[in-house]
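ok trying this again, last paste got cut off
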Amino acid sequence: MTAKSHNPQKLRKALFPGTFDPFTTGHLDILRRGLELFDGIIVAIGYNPSKTTADDVAARKKAIERILKGDSRIEVTAYTTLTVDEAVRTGASAILRGIRTTADFEYEKSLAEVNRKISGIETVLLVSSPEFSMVSSSLVRELRSFGHDVSEFLPPAD
């Protein structure tokens, strides 16, 4: 196998997909660590008809843009197609995903294999940092619905 020559002119960007309802400290951790690997990241808010969301896509997009404002390496978008089709459309060289559990790994591994087979796009899986491994959007939504303060699980949006 021969090594590919490094082309500093070619920007490598990743698509970071999710429903992000809400965008948590765990998501932010994966995004920040992903920026160590990629020149740019597209935070892509997907529409999943099998998921019930608390906020509509436009509200989630606006909230994420507030959190991530000022970083030119990050773009926030929304999509309604297959994730791999959105990755191709945006010119992403990879799909970035975070995993918290072995169940997450099994699910993401299957998706990664299919996505690579149908598009040639690789998936990069980052294991969540230990301090964020219990944080999930569904947990935050449930805690919020019972009136609990969830601010420690959400990034500041100042």
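PB: full thing came through this time. DSSP finds five helices and five strands in the chain.
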